[in-house]
Amino acid sequence: MNKLLLPLSFLISTLAFSQPKTYTVANAHSHNDYEQPVPLLTAYNEAFGSIEADIFWYNGELLVAHSEKELALHRTLEEMYLKPLQTFVEKNKGHIYADDKRRLQFMIDLKTEGVITLNKLVDLLQKYPVLTQCASLQIAISGNRPDVSAYATYPSFIWFDGELQKEYPAEALARVVMLSADLKHYTMWNGKGIIPAPQLDTLQKLVTHAHALNKPVRFWGAPDFTNAWIQLMGLQVDYINTDNIKALSDFLRTMPANSHKNKTAYKPYQGGA
């Protein structure tokens, strides 16, 4: 099957839905940020709105890694993220960014047992009141979260990344700052052309429901290049997940202010030469 190569001008015309909002780097999420050649600083210097770190409770430390085999004792959450973030807030007189209108969501994905790891994280964060009291920095917990019945028992600086299709009791929902899901759970779309109509309809309903709850939406596992970003923006997905920090930043800073819809169906590439 032939791969279809599309020029940028066509890709920008394929928004499946109109865009009522303006997308900026505030809508960019640095996925597995610690795997960047320069963690934190790369996304921070681009003024990303969300940065993600995965943590393990291991040998008395909170270590940053994607899997156990990648654990390294010098890669601690404190050294890689908390201390630099504290420096930024102090330098910016109580704000996470020099532009006091900008905000940062720091998403911490718990890889080891949820309650133990989160308790250790809370203990560590309490040593950083500059961070926990910073109004423009929000700490969101993902991964192995505790039971939703416990959400309200954590300090007010702890928030939670919710699951998009999950129903939350009101008390727990009040502590949820975002609703996320694996895009591949709903579609195997490869990022080319537009998302097939039945799957697109399902995704749109999910996003609409989340927005009705006043919660932003993020999909992980999504294709990570220009046309995919455009289609996600067409769905009004609030955080665009990326491993390609500079490419997404450049795109968001230079994308056309206006685009028209193209509803032409496109059969997703299924593999092969």
Can you describe this structure?
This protein has nine helices and nine strands. By secondary structure, the protein is an alpha/beta fold. The chain has a single domain (8-254), classed as Phosphatidylinositol (PI) phosphodiesterase (TIM Barrel, Alpha-Beta Barrel), CATH 3.20.20. Strands 1, 2, 3, 4, 5, 6, 7, 8 and 9 form a nine-stranded mixed beta sheet that branches. It is globular, with a radius of gyration of 19 Å. 34% of the residues are buried. Residues 1-20 and 257-273 have low confidence and may be disordered.
What is the number of independent domains? 1
What is the H/E string? HEHEEHEHHEEHEHEHEH
The chain-level structural class is alpha/beta
Instruction: Name the helicity range.
Output: 25-40%
CATH superfamily: Phosphatidylinositol (PI) phosphodiesterase
- What is the number of helical segments per DSSP (H or I, 4+ residues)? 9
Strand content: 15-25%
GO molecular function: phosphoric diester hydrolase activity
Organism: Niastella yeongjuensis
Protein name: Alkaline phosphatase
Pfam family, one: GDPD_2
